[in-house]
Design brief:
mainly alpha, two-stranded antiparallel sheet, 5 helices, 2 strands
């Protein structure tokens, strides 16, 4: 079966977010403030545009996303065709709560993790505007903590 390019791009984007989220930041700051409309924009960017759930949410045996473990991390269900650095797991996206505001903004506006490196594929290095990044961060920080 041939994988559509849009699905592959979405998977790569999600994997990059997963890798980003798996990093352990050094310090925390007060989360960026956000209103309901900003959080809704973040939800739209994460769920409808980035399709982050495709990699960051486990699947049921039917192949459907497991809504009871929404964005709580999952193994990446595909591998690169050629050898390359690769993140085999998509971390839970609630980990963004551990990032400082500056670290989270740099991640989503410059594609650079708190380590100074870009995320491993298939996670893309995002280049959101500052407003889009704030919205994404607001939505991700509102996600429930990962269940054990």
């Amino acid at each position: 079966m041939h994988t559509p390019p849009s699905l592959l791009l979405a998977a790569i984007t999600l994997m990059s977010l997963i890798h980003l989220v798996g990093c352990q930041p050094e310090q925390k700051t007060t989360p960026l403030a956000a209103d309901a409309s900003m959080r809704e924009l973040g939800r739209h960017l994460v769920e409808d545009i980035g399709l982050c759930a495709d990699c960051h949410t486990p699947r049921l045996s039917t192949g459907e996303l497991d809504r009871t473990r929404w964005m709580q991390g999952a193994p990446i269900g595909f591998n690169p065709v050629a050898p390359m650095p690769w993140a085999p797991l998509a971390p839970p996206l609630s980990i963004i709560a551990a990032y400082t505001d500056d670290q989270a903004m740099k991640l989503f506006t410059q594609g650079i993790k708190h380590t100074g490196q870009p995320p491993l594929p298939p996670m893309p290095s995002y280049r959101f505007t500052e407003d889009e990044a704030r919205a994404v961060i607001s939505y991700l920080r509102a996600l429930p903590a990962t269940n054990p």
